[in-house]
Amino acid sequence: MSDKFDVVVIGAGPGGYVAAIRAAQLGLKTACVERYKGKEGKVALGGTCLNVGCIPSKALLDSSYKYHEAHEGFKVHGIDAPNVTIDVPTMIGRKDQIVKNLTGGVATLFKANGVTLLEGNGKLLSGKKVEVTGLDGNVQVVEAENVILASGSRPIDIPPAPVDQKVIVDSTGALEFQSVPKRLGVIGAGVIGLELGSVWARLGAEVTVLEALDKFLVAADEQVSKEAYKILSKQGLNIRMGARVTGSQVNGEEVTVNYTEAGEEKQITFDRLIVAVGRRPVTTDLLASDSGVESDERGYIYVDDHCATSVPGVFAIGDCVRGLMLAHKASEEGVMVAERIAGHKAQMNYDLVPSVIYTHPEIAWVGKTEQALKAEGVEVNVGTFPFAVSGRALAANDTAGFVKVVADAKTDRVLGVHVVGPSAAELVQQGAIAMEFGTSAEDLGMMVFSHPTLSEALHEAALAVNGHAIHAVNRKKR
């Protein structure tokens, strides 16, 4: 049996499903192949992000913060709630329901836009043919004018701590705990490790994070990463930098971890251990040997700036190609590719992809850091504004952190916005919108921001770039 499509997408994550919907909207006959099975044993759309990544982790982060607020933050408001408890299975059940609603929503969008769902494993053959091995083992081959590879990524395994999803878990297993571990270890102080560590720390776990690197959050602006380290440590995350895990032994319901720190051999025992050392592309079983598509030794598929592979008519997007492993980056690549297939000249601005860590407070940035710009020889002016003097943040009892705006000293063009604090992701997005239009710090300073809002912190930081902040003392120019 052989069907012919204008576009076949392999993978229905935030890159693949968005690409499929956009291609269908543009009048292209589109199919999308997906093999992932959800908890109910049926194919679930949405990829890692919707099923076991961005969305379920945010659900748990939100639930755990509400508990933390009730436990620790209500008294200052005059609210007495002495007997607050957490029902972990109910919290996990709520998370599962949110996932079910959203994955079902993607299926509805497929139907509404006329996307054909092919359930099974997709493999690219030569000549832009796609072999689909169904969940029942039946094989069919579909032909395509264009193929979009959107196979995503999976957690990296490390030999010193093999995942069993019971005592030693990856990011997926960490979303399924049915009770709060007393002692929780996290290997990796990146986005995933900090978010998941935060969830269980708020609910009462003693959390130790072991990070092999000596520097905390190397991708972030140094001022932001220092402040974030200070805030998260104060919240009870015991973050050990330069701690390299060398081995682990599971004994019943606990695990002993061996690691080296400052040249010393150390040991620590946990009830649960989360391995969160990053992700790698899922490209095994994706490409037939004669498909013609080239990838590197780590499994990343080679693409150009427009996500075209070495084979005309074959594209790759999202976590299986270069760049940041972010759902929103994958989605926008999916839109760009669909539009290019339809004959439009779409492109994507990779310089303005925001990054967010959904701890509380959030940590977010867009554009370049002060350190990166100085290393490039760019002279910059910097403005910062602390939430401690924001009326809105004070009213909400949420005053940790600051907004930082970095601008070119010669042109005043804003080159980076960096925030640690309440609603950091939303504030950074305001910065991204402004930067997309080539804003100067002066432009932002001349806009009217409503009062009282957290957004005013961005306004004041932009004013501070040129020494004009109203509600904070301006740094003297040297």
Automatic annotation (TrEMBL):
Sites where the protein binds NAD(+): 188-195, 211, 278
Q: What does this protein do?
A: The branched-chain alpha-keto dehydrogenase complex catalyzes the overall conversion of alpha-keto acids to acyl-CoA and CO(2). It contains multiple copies of 3 enzymatic components: branched-chain alpha-keto acid decarboxylase (E1), lipoamide acyltransferase (E2) and lipoamide dehydrogenase (E3).
One cellular component (GO) term of this entry: cytoplasm
Q: Give the protein's recorded name.
A: Dihydrolipoyl dehydrogenase
- Coiled coil spans: none
Q: Which stretches make up the Pyridine nucleotide-disulphide oxidoreductase dimerisation domain?
A: 353-462
Q: Which family does it belong to?
A: Belongs to the class-I pyridine nucleotide-disulfide oxidoreductase family.
**MF-aspect GO terms:** dihydrolipoyl dehydrogenase (NADH) activity; flavin adenine dinucleotide binding
Whether Disulfide bond counts among this entry's keywords is: yes
A biological process from GO: 2-oxoglutarate metabolic process
Please name the taxonomic classification of the source: Bacteria, Pseudomonadati, Pseudomonadota, Gammaproteobacteria, Pseudomonadales
Give the subcellular location: Cytoplasm
